[in-house]
What does this fold into?
Amino acid sequence: MTALSDPIEVSPPRDAERFRRWLRGYGLLSPALAVMFAMLALPIAALVLLSFWTQNGFELDRSLTVENYAQLVRLKDEPTIWFGIPFYFNYPVPAILMIKSVIMSLTATIAVIALAYPMAYFLAFRVHKHKALWIIMITIPFWTSYLLRVFAWKVVLGFNGAINSGLKAIGVIDQPLEFLLYNPGAVVITLAHSWVAFAILPIYVSLEKIDRSLLEAASDLGDSKLKRFFRITLPLSAPGTVAASLLVFIPTVGDYVTPTLVGGPGGTMIGNLVQELFLKQNNAPLGAAVAITMMLIIALIVAIFLWAIGYRRIRARRM
Amino acid sequence: MLNKLDGLWVYAIIFIVFLYGPVLLMPVFALNDGTFATFPLKGFTLKNFASMAQNTSMILAFQNSLKIAIGVAILSTVLAMPAALALTRFRLPMGAPIQSFMMLPLVIPSIVIAVALLVIILKIFGIQLSLWTVAAGHVLVCLPFCMSVLMSRLEGFDANLEEASRDLGCSAWQTFWRVTFPLALPGVISSLLMGFIISFDEFVIAFFLTGTENTLPVYLFSQLRFPNKMPGVLALGSLILVGSAVLVIAAEIIRKRGAPSNNPGDF
It folds into this structure.
Protein backbone atom coordinates (compact mmCIF):
# COMPACT_ATOMS: atom_id res chain seq x y z
CA MET A 1 0.00 0.00 0.00
CA THR A 2 1.14 3.50 -0.76
CA ALA A 3 -0.57 4.49 2.48
CA LEU A 4 2.63 3.90 4.48
CA SER A 5 4.42 6.82 2.90
CA ASP A 6 1.34 8.97 2.81
CA PRO A 7 -0.08 9.48 6.29
CA ILE A 8 -3.17 11.31 5.04
CA GLU A 9 -4.38 8.19 3.30
CA VAL A 10 -4.32 6.13 6.52
CA SER A 11 -7.16 8.02 8.14
CA PRO A 12 -10.42 6.04 7.85
CA PRO A 13 -12.77 7.14 5.06
CA ARG A 14 -15.15 9.80 6.23
CA ASP A 15 -18.78 8.88 6.79
CA ALA A 16 -19.92 10.93 3.82
CA GLU A 17 -17.51 9.06 1.57
CA ARG A 18 -18.59 5.69 2.88
CA PHE A 19 -22.22 6.72 2.46
CA ARG A 20 -21.60 7.70 -1.16
CA ARG A 21 -19.96 4.33 -1.74
CA TRP A 22 -22.98 2.50 -0.33
CA LEU A 23 -25.26 4.61 -2.45
CA ARG A 24 -23.36 3.61 -5.59
CA GLY A 25 -23.45 -0.03 -4.53
CA TYR A 26 -27.18 0.01 -3.99
CA GLY A 27 -27.59 1.92 -7.23
CA LEU A 28 -25.88 -0.95 -9.07
CA LEU A 29 -28.00 -3.49 -7.23
CA SER A 30 -31.29 -1.70 -7.78
CA PRO A 31 -32.26 -2.98 -11.27
CA ALA A 32 -31.88 -6.62 -10.27
CA LEU A 33 -33.49 -5.97 -6.90
CA ALA A 34 -36.42 -4.22 -8.55
CA VAL A 35 -36.97 -7.20 -10.82
CA MET A 36 -36.79 -9.56 -7.85
CA PHE A 37 -39.31 -7.49 -5.91
CA ALA A 38 -41.68 -7.09 -8.82
CA MET A 39 -41.46 -10.70 -9.90
CA LEU A 40 -40.90 -12.65 -6.73
CA ALA A 41 -41.85 -10.73 -3.58
CA LEU A 42 -44.91 -9.07 -5.10
CA PRO A 43 -46.30 -12.23 -6.76
CA ILE A 44 -45.80 -14.27 -3.57
CA ALA A 45 -47.62 -11.53 -1.65
CA ALA A 46 -50.38 -11.63 -4.27
CA LEU A 47 -50.55 -15.41 -3.89
CA VAL A 48 -50.96 -15.00 -0.13
CA LEU A 49 -53.66 -12.39 -0.69
CA LEU A 50 -55.46 -14.61 -3.19
CA SER A 51 -55.49 -17.47 -0.71
CA PHE A 52 -57.69 -15.31 1.54
CA TRP A 53 -60.19 -14.69 -1.27
CA THR A 54 -62.72 -17.25 -2.50
CA GLN A 55 -63.96 -18.50 -5.84
CA ASN A 56 -67.72 -18.55 -6.48
CA GLY A 57 -68.11 -20.23 -9.83
CA PHE A 58 -66.64 -17.71 -12.26
CA GLU A 59 -66.75 -14.87 -9.76
CA LEU A 60 -63.78 -14.07 -7.54
CA ASP A 61 -65.04 -12.97 -4.12
CA ARG A 62 -62.50 -10.44 -2.86
CA SER A 63 -63.65 -10.28 0.74
CA LEU A 64 -60.99 -11.56 3.11
CA THR A 65 -61.69 -14.93 4.69
CA VAL A 66 -59.78 -17.94 5.97
CA GLU A 67 -62.33 -20.28 4.31
CA ASN A 68 -59.70 -21.87 2.00
CA TYR A 69 -57.43 -22.77 4.89
CA ALA A 70 -60.43 -23.92 6.95
CA GLN A 71 -61.37 -26.19 4.07
CA LEU A 72 -57.97 -27.87 4.28
CA VAL A 73 -58.33 -28.77 7.96
CA ARG A 74 -62.12 -29.10 8.47
CA LEU A 75 -62.93 -32.40 10.12
CA LYS A 76 -65.68 -34.93 9.68
CA ASP A 77 -66.66 -38.09 11.59
CA GLU A 78 -66.14 -40.69 8.84
CA PRO A 79 -62.40 -41.13 8.31
CA THR A 80 -60.92 -41.62 4.86
CA ILE A 81 -58.52 -44.54 5.08
CA TRP A 82 -55.21 -44.18 3.22
CA PHE A 83 -52.73 -47.02 3.67
CA GLY A 84 -54.41 -47.92 6.93
CA ILE A 85 -54.09 -44.39 8.29
CA PRO A 86 -57.46 -42.78 9.06
CA PHE A 87 -57.80 -39.16 7.92
CA TYR A 88 -60.68 -37.34 9.62
CA PHE A 89 -60.52 -34.45 7.16
CA ASN A 90 -63.63 -33.46 5.23
CA TYR A 91 -61.40 -32.81 2.19
CA PRO A 92 -58.54 -35.25 2.78
CA VAL A 93 -56.83 -35.02 -0.65
CA PRO A 94 -54.41 -32.15 0.19
CA ALA A 95 -53.32 -33.65 3.51
CA ILE A 96 -52.77 -37.10 1.98
CA LEU A 97 -50.89 -35.70 -1.02
CA MET A 98 -48.78 -33.48 1.22
CA ILE A 99 -47.70 -36.38 3.42
CA LYS A 100 -47.10 -38.54 0.36
CA SER A 101 -45.05 -35.82 -1.33
CA VAL A 102 -42.89 -35.29 1.74
CA ILE A 103 -42.27 -39.03 2.13
CA MET A 104 -41.47 -39.48 -1.56
CA SER A 105 -39.19 -36.49 -1.73
CA LEU A 106 -37.48 -37.46 1.53
CA THR A 107 -36.83 -40.94 0.14
CA ALA A 108 -35.46 -39.41 -3.07
CA THR A 109 -33.26 -37.02 -1.07
CA ILE A 110 -31.79 -39.84 1.02
CA ALA A 111 -31.14 -41.82 -2.17
CA VAL A 112 -29.51 -38.77 -3.77
CA ILE A 113 -27.15 -38.19 -0.83
CA ALA A 114 -26.30 -41.91 -0.63
CA LEU A 115 -25.48 -41.92 -4.36
CA ALA A 116 -23.78 -38.52 -4.50
CA TYR A 117 -21.54 -38.73 -1.43
CA PRO A 118 -19.27 -41.55 -2.65
CA MET A 119 -19.03 -39.81 -6.02
CA ALA A 120 -18.07 -36.49 -4.41
CA TYR A 121 -15.56 -38.34 -2.21
CA PHE A 122 -14.13 -39.98 -5.29
CA LEU A 123 -13.76 -36.61 -7.02
CA ALA A 124 -12.16 -34.95 -4.02
CA PHE A 125 -9.71 -37.67 -2.98
CA ARG A 126 -9.15 -40.06 -5.87
CA VAL A 127 -9.21 -37.98 -9.03
CA HIS A 128 -5.87 -36.27 -9.58
CA LYS A 129 -5.77 -35.99 -13.35
CA HIS A 130 -8.49 -34.43 -15.54
CA LYS A 131 -10.50 -33.24 -12.55
CA ALA A 132 -12.23 -30.52 -14.57
CA LEU A 133 -13.27 -33.09 -17.14
CA TRP A 134 -14.89 -35.26 -14.47
CA ILE A 135 -16.74 -32.32 -13.00
CA ILE A 136 -18.03 -31.16 -16.39
CA MET A 137 -19.14 -34.72 -17.07
CA ILE A 138 -21.15 -34.74 -13.87
CA THR A 139 -22.67 -31.29 -14.31
CA ILE A 140 -23.80 -31.69 -17.94
CA PRO A 141 -26.88 -33.82 -17.13
CA PHE A 142 -28.10 -31.25 -14.64
CA TRP A 143 -28.13 -28.52 -17.26
CA THR A 144 -29.91 -30.50 -19.93
CA SER A 145 -33.68 -30.43 -20.10
CA TYR A 146 -35.39 -31.66 -16.93
CA LEU A 147 -38.44 -32.63 -18.97
CA LEU A 148 -36.32 -34.86 -21.20
CA ARG A 149 -34.48 -36.50 -18.34
CA VAL A 150 -37.82 -37.43 -16.77
CA PHE A 151 -39.17 -38.57 -20.12
CA ALA A 152 -36.11 -40.79 -20.52
CA TRP A 153 -37.32 -42.83 -17.53
CA LYS A 154 -40.66 -43.32 -19.22
CA VAL A 155 -38.71 -44.81 -22.12
CA VAL A 156 -36.75 -47.01 -19.70
CA LEU A 157 -39.57 -48.20 -17.44
CA GLY A 158 -42.62 -48.12 -19.75
CA PHE A 159 -44.92 -51.03 -20.63
CA ASN A 160 -43.16 -51.17 -23.99
CA GLY A 161 -40.04 -49.64 -22.56
CA ALA A 162 -36.37 -50.53 -22.68
CA ILE A 163 -36.34 -52.81 -19.60
CA ASN A 164 -39.48 -54.73 -20.53
CA SER A 165 -38.67 -55.17 -24.21
CA GLY A 166 -35.03 -55.90 -23.40
CA LEU A 167 -35.91 -58.61 -20.87
CA LYS A 168 -38.48 -60.03 -23.28
CA ALA A 169 -35.98 -60.10 -26.13
CA ILE A 170 -33.48 -62.14 -24.13
CA GLY A 171 -36.27 -64.41 -22.87
CA VAL A 172 -36.32 -63.61 -19.15
CA ILE A 173 -39.99 -62.63 -19.11
CA ASP A 174 -43.01 -63.37 -21.34
CA GLN A 175 -45.26 -60.52 -20.26
CA PRO A 176 -44.11 -56.93 -19.66
CA LEU A 177 -43.69 -56.05 -15.97
CA GLU A 178 -46.42 -53.52 -15.29
CA PHE A 179 -45.21 -52.48 -11.88
CA LEU A 180 -42.21 -50.59 -13.27
CA LEU A 181 -43.95 -47.38 -14.33
CA TYR A 182 -46.78 -45.25 -12.95
CA ASN A 183 -46.26 -45.63 -9.22
CA PRO A 184 -44.51 -43.74 -6.40
CA GLY A 185 -41.41 -45.91 -6.78
CA ALA A 186 -40.93 -44.78 -10.36
CA VAL A 187 -41.29 -41.15 -9.22
CA VAL A 188 -38.67 -41.60 -6.48
CA ILE A 189 -36.17 -43.26 -8.86
CA THR A 190 -36.68 -40.54 -11.46
CA LEU A 191 -36.38 -37.74 -8.91
CA ALA A 192 -33.19 -39.25 -7.50
CA HIS A 193 -31.69 -39.57 -10.98
CA SER A 194 -32.68 -36.02 -11.97
CA TRP A 195 -31.22 -34.36 -8.90
CA VAL A 196 -28.17 -36.45 -8.06
CA ALA A 197 -25.84 -34.41 -10.29
CA PHE A 198 -26.90 -31.23 -8.50
CA ALA A 199 -26.04 -32.67 -5.08
CA ILE A 200 -22.47 -33.72 -5.88
CA LEU A 201 -21.00 -30.24 -6.24
CA PRO A 202 -21.76 -28.83 -2.73
CA ILE A 203 -20.55 -32.07 -1.09
CA TYR A 204 -17.43 -32.07 -3.27
CA VAL A 205 -16.64 -28.46 -2.34
CA SER A 206 -16.82 -29.17 1.40
CA LEU A 207 -14.70 -32.31 1.01
CA GLU A 208 -12.14 -30.43 -1.05
CA LYS A 209 -11.84 -27.76 1.65
CA ILE A 210 -10.83 -30.27 4.33
CA ASP A 211 -7.26 -29.66 5.46
CA ARG A 212 -5.38 -32.80 4.42
CA SER A 213 -3.03 -32.52 7.39
CA LEU A 214 -5.97 -33.25 9.70
CA LEU A 215 -6.38 -36.59 7.97
CA GLU A 216 -2.66 -37.33 8.28
CA ALA A 217 -2.74 -36.37 11.94
CA ALA A 218 -5.65 -38.75 12.58
CA SER A 219 -3.77 -41.58 10.88
CA ASP A 220 -0.54 -40.80 12.72
CA LEU A 221 -2.40 -40.88 16.01
CA GLY A 222 -3.64 -44.37 15.22
CA ASP A 223 -7.07 -44.01 13.66
CA SER A 224 -8.01 -46.67 11.14
CA LYS A 225 -9.20 -45.45 7.73
CA LEU A 226 -12.83 -46.10 8.65
CA LYS A 227 -12.55 -44.42 12.04
CA ARG A 228 -10.79 -41.45 10.43
CA PHE A 229 -13.63 -41.12 7.95
CA PHE A 230 -16.30 -41.02 10.67
CA ARG A 231 -14.33 -38.75 13.00
CA ILE A 232 -12.85 -36.26 10.53
CA THR A 233 -14.13 -36.45 6.96
CA LEU A 234 -17.82 -36.96 7.58
CA PRO A 235 -18.26 -34.22 10.22
CA LEU A 236 -16.20 -31.70 8.24
CA SER A 237 -18.16 -32.34 5.06
CA ALA A 238 -21.47 -31.95 6.90
CA PRO A 239 -22.16 -28.34 5.78
CA GLY A 240 -21.98 -29.31 2.10
CA THR A 241 -23.98 -32.46 2.65
CA VAL A 242 -26.71 -30.57 4.53
CA ALA A 243 -26.81 -27.89 1.82
CA ALA A 244 -27.07 -30.57 -0.87
CA SER A 245 -29.92 -32.36 0.87
CA LEU A 246 -31.88 -29.11 1.27
CA LEU A 247 -31.24 -28.12 -2.36
CA VAL A 248 -32.80 -31.43 -3.38
CA PHE A 249 -35.57 -31.78 -0.80
CA ILE A 250 -37.11 -28.30 -1.05
CA PRO A 251 -37.79 -28.17 -4.80
CA THR A 252 -38.74 -31.85 -5.17
CA VAL A 253 -41.65 -31.73 -2.70
CA GLY A 254 -43.47 -29.43 -5.11
CA ASP A 255 -42.30 -31.08 -8.30
CA TYR A 256 -44.85 -31.26 -11.08
CA VAL A 257 -43.14 -32.78 -14.12
CA THR A 258 -41.98 -36.08 -12.59
CA PRO A 259 -45.25 -37.23 -10.98
CA THR A 260 -47.15 -36.16 -14.09
CA LEU A 261 -44.98 -38.11 -16.49
CA VAL A 262 -44.02 -41.24 -14.55
CA GLY A 263 -46.31 -41.22 -11.50
CA GLY A 264 -49.62 -42.32 -12.97
CA PRO A 265 -52.75 -42.12 -10.77
CA GLY A 266 -50.95 -43.64 -7.76
CA GLY A 267 -47.87 -41.42 -7.94
CA THR A 268 -49.46 -37.96 -7.88
CA MET A 269 -47.94 -35.33 -5.62
CA ILE A 270 -49.00 -32.01 -4.12
CA GLY A 271 -47.76 -30.09 -7.20
CA ASN A 272 -50.33 -31.92 -9.34
CA LEU A 273 -53.09 -30.77 -7.00
CA VAL A 274 -51.93 -27.14 -7.24
CA GLN A 275 -51.86 -27.38 -11.04
CA GLU A 276 -55.32 -28.95 -11.12
CA LEU A 277 -56.89 -26.37 -8.81
CA PHE A 278 -55.42 -23.52 -10.85
CA LEU A 279 -55.83 -24.71 -14.42
CA LYS A 280 -58.60 -27.33 -14.38
CA GLN A 281 -60.94 -26.81 -11.44
CA ASN A 282 -60.80 -23.01 -11.73
CA ASN A 283 -60.32 -22.63 -8.00
CA ALA A 284 -57.17 -20.50 -7.86
CA PRO A 285 -57.78 -19.27 -4.27
CA LEU A 286 -57.86 -22.83 -2.91
CA GLY A 287 -54.84 -23.65 -5.09
CA ALA A 288 -53.04 -20.65 -3.61
CA ALA A 289 -53.90 -21.81 -0.08
CA VAL A 290 -52.52 -25.29 -0.89
CA ALA A 291 -49.32 -23.79 -2.38
CA ILE A 292 -48.77 -21.49 0.63
CA THR A 293 -49.45 -24.31 3.08
CA MET A 294 -46.97 -26.47 1.19
CA MET A 295 -44.27 -23.79 1.44
CA LEU A 296 -44.91 -23.33 5.16
CA ILE A 297 -44.74 -27.08 5.81
CA ILE A 298 -41.48 -27.35 3.81
CA ALA A 299 -40.02 -24.42 5.77
CA LEU A 300 -41.08 -26.04 9.05
CA ILE A 301 -39.52 -29.38 8.12
CA VAL A 302 -36.28 -27.66 7.09
CA ALA A 303 -36.20 -25.67 10.35
CA ILE A 304 -36.79 -28.79 12.46
CA PHE A 305 -34.13 -30.67 10.49
CA LEU A 306 -31.53 -27.91 10.91
CA TRP A 307 -32.32 -27.62 14.62
CA ALA A 308 -32.18 -31.40 15.12
CA ILE A 309 -28.72 -31.77 13.59
CA GLY A 310 -27.42 -28.62 15.29
CA TYR A 311 -26.56 -26.80 12.08
CA ARG A 312 -25.14 -23.73 13.82
CA ARG A 313 -22.65 -25.92 15.64
CA ILE A 314 -21.66 -27.68 12.41
CA ARG A 315 -21.10 -24.41 10.59
CA ALA A 316 -19.13 -22.93 13.47
CA ARG A 317 -16.82 -25.94 13.55
CA ARG A 318 -15.83 -25.33 9.97
CA MET A 319 -14.46 -21.89 10.75
CA MET B 1 -3.57 -48.34 -13.50
CA LEU B 2 -4.75 -51.71 -12.23
CA ASN B 3 -4.19 -50.97 -8.56
CA LYS B 4 -6.30 -47.85 -9.02
CA LEU B 5 -9.31 -49.96 -9.97
CA ASP B 6 -10.57 -50.18 -6.42
CA GLY B 7 -14.14 -49.98 -5.18
CA LEU B 8 -14.51 -46.24 -5.62
CA TRP B 9 -13.38 -46.33 -9.24
CA VAL B 10 -15.85 -49.12 -9.98
CA TYR B 11 -18.54 -47.10 -8.24
CA ALA B 12 -17.69 -43.97 -10.21
CA ILE B 13 -17.99 -45.84 -13.51
CA ILE B 14 -21.33 -47.41 -12.53
CA PHE B 15 -22.50 -43.97 -11.42
CA ILE B 16 -21.68 -42.39 -14.77
CA VAL B 17 -23.51 -45.23 -16.55
CA PHE B 18 -26.55 -44.67 -14.30
CA LEU B 19 -26.38 -40.92 -14.92
CA TYR B 20 -26.13 -41.11 -18.69
CA GLY B 21 -27.74 -44.48 -19.50
CA PRO B 22 -31.44 -43.54 -19.51
CA VAL B 23 -30.79 -40.30 -21.37
CA LEU B 24 -28.60 -41.92 -24.01
CA LEU B 25 -31.35 -44.43 -24.81
CA MET B 26 -33.23 -41.56 -26.43
CA PRO B 27 -30.88 -41.04 -29.41
CA VAL B 28 -30.50 -44.84 -29.70
CA PHE B 29 -34.25 -45.32 -30.15
CA ALA B 30 -34.56 -42.19 -32.28
CA LEU B 31 -32.16 -43.74 -34.80
CA ASN B 32 -33.99 -47.07 -34.61
CA ASP B 33 -36.39 -48.01 -37.40
CA GLY B 34 -39.46 -48.82 -35.30
CA THR B 35 -42.67 -47.21 -34.06
CA PHE B 36 -42.01 -47.95 -30.38
CA ALA B 37 -38.99 -47.41 -28.19
CA THR B 38 -38.32 -51.12 -27.77
CA PHE B 39 -35.55 -53.68 -27.97
CA PRO B 40 -34.44 -55.48 -30.06
CA LEU B 41 -33.36 -52.66 -32.37
CA LYS B 42 -34.72 -53.06 -35.87
CA GLY B 43 -32.27 -51.10 -37.96
CA PHE B 44 -30.74 -47.71 -38.54
CA THR B 45 -32.83 -44.85 -39.91
CA LEU B 46 -32.73 -41.08 -40.15
CA LYS B 47 -36.38 -40.74 -41.14
CA ASN B 48 -37.44 -39.55 -37.67
CA PHE B 49 -35.07 -36.63 -38.02
CA ALA B 50 -35.96 -36.00 -41.65
CA SER B 51 -39.68 -35.77 -40.88
CA MET B 52 -39.02 -32.99 -38.36
CA ALA B 53 -38.40 -30.59 -41.25
CA GLN B 54 -42.08 -30.80 -42.25
CA ASN B 55 -43.42 -30.31 -38.74
CA THR B 56 -44.44 -26.64 -38.83
CA SER B 57 -45.88 -26.44 -35.30
CA MET B 58 -42.63 -27.82 -33.94
CA ILE B 59 -40.54 -25.36 -35.95
CA LEU B 60 -42.73 -22.53 -34.73
CA ALA B 61 -42.31 -23.65 -31.12
CA PHE B 62 -38.56 -23.89 -31.69
CA GLN B 63 -38.44 -20.33 -33.02
CA ASN B 64 -40.45 -19.08 -30.04
CA SER B 65 -38.10 -20.79 -27.60
CA LEU B 66 -35.09 -19.42 -29.44
CA LYS B 67 -36.39 -15.83 -29.30
CA ILE B 68 -37.28 -16.09 -25.62
CA ALA B 69 -34.00 -17.75 -24.67
CA ILE B 70 -31.86 -15.16 -26.47
CA GLY B 71 -33.77 -12.26 -24.94
CA VAL B 72 -33.77 -13.79 -21.48
CA ALA B 73 -30.04 -14.60 -21.60
CA ILE B 74 -29.16 -11.00 -22.52
CA LEU B 75 -31.57 -9.37 -20.08
CA SER B 76 -30.63 -11.54 -17.10
CA THR B 77 -26.91 -11.05 -17.74
CA VAL B 78 -27.38 -7.27 -18.07
CA LEU B 79 -29.31 -7.24 -14.78
CA ALA B 80 -26.94 -9.64 -13.03
CA MET B 81 -23.68 -7.83 -13.95
CA PRO B 82 -24.16 -4.62 -11.90
CA ALA B 83 -25.68 -6.62 -9.05
CA ALA B 84 -22.73 -9.00 -9.03
CA LEU B 85 -20.35 -6.01 -9.03
CA ALA B 86 -22.22 -4.41 -6.13
CA LEU B 87 -22.10 -7.60 -4.06
CA THR B 88 -18.43 -8.35 -4.74
CA ARG B 89 -16.86 -4.88 -4.84
CA PHE B 90 -18.82 -2.77 -2.36
CA ARG B 91 -18.91 -4.06 1.19
CA LEU B 92 -22.56 -3.22 1.55
CA PRO B 93 -24.43 -3.39 4.80
CA MET B 94 -27.20 -5.97 4.28
CA GLY B 95 -25.16 -7.47 1.43
CA ALA B 96 -25.49 -11.04 2.70
CA PRO B 97 -29.29 -11.00 3.20
CA ILE B 98 -29.77 -9.33 -0.18
CA GLN B 99 -27.68 -12.04 -1.79
CA SER B 100 -29.77 -14.75 -0.12
CA PHE B 101 -32.93 -13.04 -1.32
CA MET B 102 -31.58 -13.01 -4.88
CA MET B 103 -30.87 -16.75 -4.66
CA LEU B 104 -34.42 -17.58 -3.52
CA PRO B 105 -35.72 -18.69 -6.94
CA LEU B 106 -33.25 -21.59 -6.65
CA VAL B 107 -35.06 -23.14 -3.71
CA ILE B 108 -38.70 -22.23 -4.33
CA PRO B 109 -40.47 -25.03 -6.22
CA SER B 110 -41.02 -23.75 -9.75
CA ILE B 111 -44.73 -24.51 -9.57
CA VAL B 112 -45.06 -21.96 -6.76
CA ILE B 113 -43.18 -19.34 -8.81
CA ALA B 114 -45.39 -20.20 -11.77
CA VAL B 115 -48.73 -19.86 -9.97
CA ALA B 116 -47.60 -16.75 -8.10
CA LEU B 117 -46.70 -15.06 -11.41
CA LEU B 118 -49.95 -16.34 -12.93
CA VAL B 119 -51.93 -14.72 -10.12
CA ILE B 120 -50.24 -11.35 -10.39
CA ILE B 121 -50.39 -11.32 -14.19
CA LEU B 122 -54.02 -12.40 -14.54
CA LYS B 123 -55.88 -11.46 -11.37
CA ILE B 124 -54.03 -8.33 -10.27
CA PHE B 125 -52.75 -6.66 -13.45
CA GLY B 126 -55.09 -8.32 -15.94
CA ILE B 127 -52.34 -8.75 -18.58
CA GLN B 128 -52.88 -11.34 -21.32
CA LEU B 129 -50.64 -14.40 -21.22
CA SER B 130 -48.12 -14.50 -24.06
CA LEU B 131 -44.52 -15.31 -24.83
CA TRP B 132 -43.64 -12.06 -23.04
CA THR B 133 -44.99 -13.37 -19.75
CA VAL B 134 -43.00 -16.58 -20.23
CA ALA B 135 -39.85 -14.54 -20.83
CA ALA B 136 -40.50 -12.49 -17.68
CA GLY B 137 -40.77 -15.66 -15.61
CA HIS B 138 -37.59 -17.01 -17.16
CA VAL B 139 -35.60 -13.87 -16.30
CA LEU B 140 -36.51 -14.48 -12.66
CA VAL B 141 -35.24 -18.08 -12.62
CA CYS B 142 -32.11 -17.26 -14.65
CA LEU B 143 -31.00 -14.31 -12.50
CA PRO B 144 -29.58 -16.34 -9.58
CA PHE B 145 -27.59 -18.57 -11.94
CA CYS B 146 -26.18 -15.63 -13.91
CA MET B 147 -25.35 -13.83 -10.67
CA SER B 148 -23.43 -16.74 -9.19
CA VAL B 149 -21.46 -17.32 -12.40
CA LEU B 150 -20.54 -13.62 -12.60
CA MET B 151 -19.78 -13.28 -8.90
CA SER B 152 -17.41 -16.21 -8.89
CA ARG B 153 -15.67 -14.72 -11.93
CA LEU B 154 -15.41 -11.26 -10.34
CA GLU B 155 -14.01 -12.79 -7.16
CA GLY B 156 -11.52 -14.73 -9.29
CA PHE B 157 -9.38 -11.80 -10.38
CA ASP B 158 -7.53 -9.13 -8.49
CA ALA B 159 -9.73 -6.14 -7.63
CA ASN B 160 -6.51 -4.07 -7.26
CA LEU B 161 -6.42 -3.87 -11.06
CA GLU B 162 -9.61 -1.84 -10.91
CA GLU B 163 -8.21 0.38 -8.18
CA ALA B 164 -5.05 0.93 -10.20
CA SER B 165 -7.18 2.03 -13.12
CA ARG B 166 -9.05 4.50 -10.92
CA ASP B 167 -5.78 5.81 -9.44
CA LEU B 168 -4.45 6.36 -12.95
CA GLY B 169 -7.35 8.64 -13.68
CA CYS B 170 -10.03 6.53 -15.31
CA SER B 171 -13.64 7.20 -14.45
CA ALA B 172 -15.74 4.39 -12.96
CA TRP B 173 -17.37 3.90 -16.35
CA GLN B 174 -14.01 3.71 -18.18
CA THR B 175 -12.64 1.36 -15.55
CA PHE B 176 -15.59 -0.94 -16.05
CA TRP B 177 -15.21 -1.14 -19.83
CA ARG B 178 -11.39 -1.16 -19.95
CA VAL B 179 -10.58 -3.40 -16.96
CA THR B 180 -13.51 -5.13 -15.32
CA PHE B 181 -15.50 -6.14 -18.37
CA PRO B 182 -12.60 -7.63 -20.39
CA LEU B 183 -11.44 -9.58 -17.33
CA ALA B 184 -14.97 -10.75 -16.57
CA LEU B 185 -15.72 -11.59 -20.19
CA PRO B 186 -15.45 -15.38 -19.82
CA GLY B 187 -17.95 -15.11 -16.96
CA VAL B 188 -20.23 -12.90 -19.05
CA ILE B 189 -20.24 -15.34 -21.97
CA SER B 190 -20.83 -18.28 -19.68
CA SER B 191 -23.64 -16.37 -17.96
CA LEU B 192 -25.24 -15.72 -21.37
CA LEU B 193 -24.97 -19.39 -22.29
CA MET B 194 -26.36 -20.54 -18.91
CA GLY B 195 -29.30 -18.14 -19.19
CA PHE B 196 -29.97 -19.37 -22.71
CA ILE B 197 -29.94 -23.04 -21.73
CA ILE B 198 -32.08 -22.59 -18.62
CA SER B 199 -34.70 -20.59 -20.49
CA PHE B 200 -34.65 -22.85 -23.54
CA ASP B 201 -35.17 -26.01 -21.46
CA GLU B 202 -37.57 -24.59 -18.85
CA PHE B 203 -40.99 -26.22 -18.84
CA VAL B 204 -43.16 -25.57 -15.76
CA ILE B 205 -43.18 -21.77 -15.85
CA ALA B 206 -43.67 -21.73 -19.63
CA PHE B 207 -46.52 -24.25 -19.27
CA PHE B 208 -48.37 -21.97 -16.83
CA LEU B 209 -47.55 -18.59 -18.32
CA THR B 210 -47.82 -19.14 -22.05
CA GLY B 211 -50.88 -18.00 -23.98
CA THR B 212 -51.78 -19.60 -27.27
CA GLU B 213 -48.21 -19.97 -28.47
CA ASN B 214 -45.98 -22.87 -27.48
CA THR B 215 -42.37 -22.98 -26.46
CA LEU B 216 -40.45 -26.09 -27.47
CA PRO B 217 -40.70 -27.88 -24.08
CA VAL B 218 -44.44 -27.11 -23.89
CA TYR B 219 -44.86 -28.47 -27.41
CA LEU B 220 -42.84 -31.56 -26.48
CA PHE B 221 -45.00 -32.11 -23.39
CA SER B 222 -48.19 -31.92 -25.46
CA GLN B 223 -46.82 -34.66 -27.74
CA LEU B 224 -45.96 -37.05 -24.92
CA ARG B 225 -49.58 -38.16 -24.54
CA PHE B 226 -49.73 -39.72 -27.99
CA PRO B 227 -47.87 -43.04 -28.31
CA ASN B 228 -47.73 -42.73 -32.12
CA LYS B 229 -45.77 -39.45 -31.76
CA MET B 230 -43.03 -41.29 -29.86
CA PRO B 231 -40.46 -41.48 -32.70
CA GLY B 232 -40.77 -37.74 -33.40
CA VAL B 233 -40.45 -36.92 -29.70
CA LEU B 234 -37.35 -39.10 -29.44
CA ALA B 235 -35.73 -37.38 -32.41
CA LEU B 236 -36.52 -33.91 -31.12
CA GLY B 237 -35.41 -34.86 -27.62
CA SER B 238 -32.10 -36.19 -28.89
CA LEU B 239 -31.37 -32.97 -30.75
CA ILE B 240 -32.23 -30.86 -27.70
CA LEU B 241 -29.99 -33.02 -25.51
CA VAL B 242 -27.04 -32.76 -27.88
CA GLY B 243 -27.56 -29.01 -28.30
CA SER B 244 -27.75 -28.36 -24.55
CA ALA B 245 -24.73 -30.54 -23.86
CA VAL B 246 -22.63 -28.66 -26.42
CA LEU B 247 -23.66 -25.30 -24.91
CA VAL B 248 -22.94 -26.45 -21.34
CA ILE B 249 -19.51 -27.71 -22.31
CA ALA B 250 -18.79 -24.43 -24.09
CA ALA B 251 -19.97 -22.43 -21.08
CA GLU B 252 -17.81 -24.43 -18.66
CA ILE B 253 -14.70 -24.28 -20.85
CA ILE B 254 -15.02 -20.53 -21.36
CA ARG B 255 -15.70 -19.97 -17.67
CA LYS B 256 -12.54 -21.65 -16.48
CA ARG B 257 -10.25 -20.00 -18.99
CA GLY B 258 -8.11 -17.09 -17.91
CA ALA B 259 -7.45 -16.11 -14.33
CA PRO B 260 -7.47 -19.05 -11.91
CA SER B 261 -9.93 -19.00 -9.06
CA ASN B 262 -9.25 -20.24 -5.55
CA ASN B 263 -12.80 -21.46 -5.07
CA PRO B 264 -12.68 -25.26 -5.39
CA GLY B 265 -16.29 -25.21 -6.60
CA ASP B 266 -15.36 -23.78 -9.95
CA PHE B 267 -12.20 -25.77 -10.48
